[in-house]
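Lecture notes, unit on protein representations.

Consider one protein chain, 159 amino acids long.
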Amino acid sequence: MIFWIFVILTIVCIAVIVATNKISNKYDYYEREKNTRFVDFVYQNDEPIYWINGIIAVISGMVIVCMLISIIIAQTQADGLRASNEQRYNALVYKAQTEAIRDEFGIVNKSYIDEAQEWNEYLAKYQSYSRSFWVGIFYPKRAYDGFEFIDLQGIKMRD
């Protein structure tokens, strides 16, 4: 949504510049009694209107270009990120199913718990970003959807 707000802002500023130009060219300043107050205001202040809307349009246009670059990068790297996430998830699940996460007393290693918690936090964060109304366009859903959280409650601390 943030991207589309900047697109709309740019279009509105360009439309205001075009409308100001049309009003300035169409109406005559010397026929003030025929003009409405709005037309008279635009005619008298056309230079600041051009400058303000032009500056806003240029700045928001540059922001749009930066956002487009970011979107393109995110979309082109989404499949690689998904493959990386799959490998990370599969490794965590494999560790949970083996005795590799337990010490000689049968207690789950703290390093595995920390690693699983880091995965859960990472997954929750980026899944919520990808579903966000405001910034979801920057985080492709296909990179984060379909993964599950590691159930820390299900791992027995001791056998």
